[in-house]
């Protein structure tokens, strides 16, 4: 898929981190970009800085997502590119003991379900909405559109307390190939990136000693990934017409330890 001023793109989670870097990279290639994000202030600031359209959206809501796609299409036309970076998680062990009382605590099922709804269902909600729109487009160079998802290295080697997060990201990995097959007859490709430890706003807020210890666990290079490195891979997945149904780790060869 070519990336130029004739192509519209949507990036979810585009107000920060991996999504912001991807929106910037797409815009640098001339694409008409809309960013989806729940944070209205950050989204408006990034939109002004990058020259993109901001749509406030909650990926947990069908109505919110539908309205955001309508707004983005009114501004830029039907998108041919969707990059899903919206998501989040929590850190709760399946069961644990209270340090003071010794009482047993259980990971609340509703807290587990929330992470799956956000990362898995939220991603799928945007995929299906975008794919439906892409199906209305004419073929260009044999294809109508491209979708890139964000999973995590935790999908394969989640740490303690990451049962919900790992399950949600493993589900994104697991649905990539079936969706690629579902969309194959329509000329729409889909791939997924599994980032390792990246220098995102959440990670930047950690204490220096914690960041140094984490960076030391990466075999090479011994540092965090940078968001433009994620964006570079996302753009390659978009451009390369034979890249389809794949999930790729981007992690400096790290394999996460238990904790």
TrEMBL record:
Gene Ontology terms, MF aspect: oxidoreductase activity
SUPFAM superfamilies, alphabetized: NAD(P)-binding Rossmann-fold domains
Coiled coil (UniProt feature): none
Keyword Membrane recorded: no
Alphabetical UniProt keywords: Oxidoreductase
Segment forming the signal sequence: none
UniProt entry tagged with the keyword Oxidoreductase: yes
Similarity field: Belongs to the short-chain dehydrogenases/reductases (SDR) family.
Protein name: 3-hydroxy-2-methylbutyryl-CoA dehydrogenase
Lineage start: Bacteria, Pseudomonadati, Pseudomonadota, Alphaproteobacteria, Sphingomonadales
């Amino acid at each position: 898929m070519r990336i130029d001023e004739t192509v519209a793109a949507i990036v979810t989670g585009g107000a920060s981190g991996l999504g912001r870097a991807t929106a910037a990279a797409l815009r640098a290639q001339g694409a008409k970009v809309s960013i989806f994000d729940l944070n209205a202030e950050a989204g408006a600031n990034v939109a002004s800085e990058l020259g993109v359209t901001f749509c406030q959206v909650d990926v947990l809501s069908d109505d919110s997502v539908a309205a955001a796609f309508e707004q983005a299409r009114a501004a830029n036309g039907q998108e041919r590119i969707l990059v899903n970076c919206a998501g989040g998680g929590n850190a709760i062990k399946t069961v644990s003991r209270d340090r003071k009382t010794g009482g047993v605590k259980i990971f609340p099922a509703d807290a587990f379900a929330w992470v799956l709804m956000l990362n898995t269902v939220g991603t799928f909600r945007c995929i299906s909405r975008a794919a439906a729109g892409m199906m209305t487009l004419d073929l260009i160079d044999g294809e109508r559109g491209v979708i890139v998802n964000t999973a995590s290295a935790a999908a394969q080697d989640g740490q303690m307390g990451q049962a919900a997060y790992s399950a949600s990201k493993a589900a994104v990995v697991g649905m990539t190939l079936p969706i690629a097959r579902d969309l194959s007859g329509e000329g729409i490709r889909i791939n997924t990136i599994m980032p390792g430890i990246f220098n995102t706003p959440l990670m930047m807020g950690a204490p220096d000693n914690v960041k140094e210890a984490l960076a030391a666990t990466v075999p090479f290079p011994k540092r965090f990934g940078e968001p433009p490195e994620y964006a570079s891979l996302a753009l390659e997945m978009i451009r390369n017409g034979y890249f389809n149904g794949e999930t790729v780790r981007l992690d400096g060869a790290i394999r996460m330890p238990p904790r």
